[in-house]
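Holo prediction — flavin-adenine dinucleotide.
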Amino acid sequence: MPDLISGNGCGVRIGVYVCHCGTNIAGTIDVHALAEFAATLPGVVLARDYKYMCSDPGQELIKKDIAEQQLTRIVVAACSPCLHEKTFRHATEEGGLNPFFFHMVNLREHDSWVHTDKVAATEKGKDLVRAAVRRVKHHKPLERRQVSINPDALIVGGGIAGIHAALTMANAGKHVYLVEREPTIGGHMAQFDKTFPTLDCAACILTPKMTAVKTHPNITLWTLSEVDKVEGYVGNYKVSVKRKPRYIREDVCVGCLECIEACVYKQAKVLDEFNMGLGTRRPIYIPFPQAVPQLVLIDPESCIEFKSGTCKKTCVEACAERQAIDFKQQERFEEIDVGTIILATGFDVFDAGRIPYYGYGIYPNVYTALELERLVNASGPTAGEVLLRDGTKPKSVGIIHCVGSRDENTNKYCSRVCCMYSLKLAHLIKEKTDAEVYNCYIDIRAPGKGFEEFYNRVSEEGTHFIRGKVADVFPTEGTNQLTMRVEDTLMSMVRQIPVDMVVLAVGLEAQPDAQDVRRRFNISCSTEGFFLERHPKLAPVSTFTDGVFLAGCCQGPKDIPDTVAQAGAAAAEALALIDAGAVELEPNTAFIEEEFCSGCKTCIPMCPYSAISFVAEKKKAAINEVLCKGCGTCVAACPSGSIVQNLFEDVEVFDEIEGVLAYA
Ligand SMILES: Cc1cc2nc3c(=O)[nH]c(=O)nc-3n(C[C@H](O)[C@H](O)[C@H](O)COP(=O)(O)OP(=O)(O)OC[C@H]3O[C@@H](n4cnc5c(N)ncnc54)[C@H](O)[C@@H]3O)c2cc1C
């Protein structure tokens, strides 16, 4: 058995393991030939191929060989390190070696899954294994560091996702800061009357949870607030929260609403955001009757006192006893320390004006689904009546599915909830008006529990279903009606359907500021703009930033049951992290060889994690290894080559490159 001396002077005995991964790898790469080749490489004392290296017997092989063959380095050629690097590091450690005396070759994603030619793929596999064998010789023993976890948590967004996550964590005894940018929590669900498929009253199931948030001793609720800055790392985040003025003293206001009645601005022309602009509100207002916190606020854009300073301030008189109104309130910042963060910032609806041929914003009786949600709601602008703009009831209503979803020109993805909420709206419109309802759909997607049954129920109620994408909506000549032109693909004919009202089932999109938010929290967005999870199947609520989790529609369109399930999962992940008490940090961080550092500061602005500072006394840069994520930017940027990164030292990288390019 050869006992080689490596380039760095250590004696190394390398074991190479080639995984078949069923046929994922073995179907495209000759794994036996690859193992035979590996066995001939300098320093390799044994090479094996095995069906599933990640299985217990596969890992046992590594441990046994380390003991019996006195292996000192391990190379596993298998799948992505994202999935199993930890598994094999653990096996290496259990075998008695430092876990970083191991290197993984991604034979699956980098080779077998992207090639079809078996001979060429096997040759590429040889190059990759040769490179790993060359670099692993230089690996040094590294130690993982532990950092403690602050048990407090931050949740951003107070829709049903944020509310559920906050209550779950608070009930488990953790202190939660819930930050919501609107004046009230509740999110989109607070705007609905009923929820599919059970037709539960949305307010009846949501408001008890909203109230529980407000009264929970473990929850600090900040509305009209947004996260301004986030610094730190898993377990130890420092967050600055911007709190906008409400112009009402929250500790004094009791929500009696007398100030609203007293406001002189009686002929209010301010469009009510909560009612989607279908009603008006006064400059001093409460978003909706069950808002939490039950506090009024002043809109400085429309308040006469803010605009001209000439108001009689009858609101102040009405509140003379409590003196809750404070026109001088200023924006302020709160600094908090938290260990974990859950993002639950939800979604925005597709802007129907982007599809002009459906006439939204052009014809008054074309509504979006969210506007309809407000019309059918007893606390909405028409007290629950479905009315046309002229105040009459519609006799016929068309609902157009997939507006801004499943469309090459807008969003290619399915928004998942529009079919079901369109069925819900069809039911509610029929119930309230007895109108003929025409649902024009591409396919009905009803895959959830009780969804198909709900579809059947709405069909049996007499709603018409027309399979076809509506081409356009235009005024019907000589009447106040609108015509929907649609190709009925089941009847193979183009139909023109006159209706009094058109409802557009708008899709769900990422929040317009999703990119800003993702930058602030150092996470990624998917191509559709929603926040990206670490792994779609195995880590659906985690992000690539440790300690930051996702809940609800900020990760992608979903209904309320899925949102609540995901929020519970995010809370459970955060709780597991907190209860572990400490977290281990990967040691693949950068460090500075001080004797070579010229103090030029080039590296400092390059670091995306603000991990580098300048030590004035020494005139040298210093890296906070806890903040460093091992991205290597500073290593590449350093003009004097004084920054080194563990596991990516020059000798390791150059030998790896030479290994890929070598012929033998
Ligand atoms: C017309 C329509 C009808 C629907 N009907 C149903 C139904 O009947 N049944 C059903 O199961 N699902 C329904 N849905 C889907 C449902 O709306 C979502 O599943 C649910 O609202 C998702 O909750 P969320 O908390 O993730 O997001 P949201 O409800 O969007 O809440 C997000 C919250 O985060 C806040 N926020 C955003 N950005 C920030 C920030 N930067 N800082 C602080 N706070 C922020 C927002 O103000 C908001 O309060 C419907 C959707 C639509 C469009």
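READOUT: Confidence is low (pLDDT under 50) at residues 1-10.
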